[in-house]
């Protein structure tokens, strides 16, 4: 008797699937289009950097994925369901969002900021919600004594960490990051990249990140999607995208900043060089 033949594995469901998206703002003579015939598929485990010139619609695309802005045409599917169904209670159990400036509630303590989505859901007693929030604070490298601080008393790096803990409080499989390292100094930026890389790997997250920062892009991305001419013109690993002949790619990846980000880090001078 011949050995049973294993059935071919079912193709993995993409975490995000955008098909023939069009976004038009305004009406009549004021109408202007941001996206046209935009397609993008993000597979489980990908850490995708979304890049493009200013005003090309990167933030609007994140809002479509969050279900906060309805497309004019086309479909946006997240975890197998239309993105517009994500809104409302429990949305943050499917998609976590880290806004550029953290967007913490200034009148709430760190702990209450992180626990907020759980309070709103009302499925856990408040004390248990706070315990979950404490676990998330530890996960992002904050200490128990930071829990009762107010946002105004935090450094920029700590605000990002609290906002990240808040985005992860309901264990979403998909995390969206808008300029995660903006406003951080080079050290803070490296530390935050290390944290994101570790969480991406250990939690098995799928991540979509808008960034203008090439160091962050090279440090983290498994793939890069380039938004230009109203759609995604490339979706591939960074080293491949960087070679494309396109004015934006040329400027972004092969301009001065790009070449600096690609260069190996300078090594400390040897004793012979110093003398
Ligand atoms: N709700 C809205 N109503 C009208 N226009 C909007 C709305 N949201 C965004 N826009 C416009 O859509 C375009 C794309 O905006 P978006 O913020 O997505 O660009 P971006 O690629 O994120 O830019 P940047 O890199 O500068 O942050 C811009 O012209 C913006 O003014």
Automatic annotation (TrEMBL):
Residues 16-254 form the ABC transporter domain. PROSITE patterns: ABC_TRANSPORTER_1, ABC_TRANSPORTER_2. The keyword Transport applies. It holds the Pfam family ABC_tran. InterPro entries: AAA+_ATPase, ABC_transporter-like_ATP-bd, ABC_transporter-like_CS, P-loop_NTPase. GO terms for molecular function: ATP binding; ATP hydrolysis activity. Keywords: ATP-binding, Cell membrane, Membrane, Nucleotide-binding, Transport. PANTHER family: PROTEIN TRIGALACTOSYLDIACYLGLYCEROL 3, CHLOROPLASTIC. This is ATP-binding cassette domain-containing protein. It comes from Comamonas flocculans.
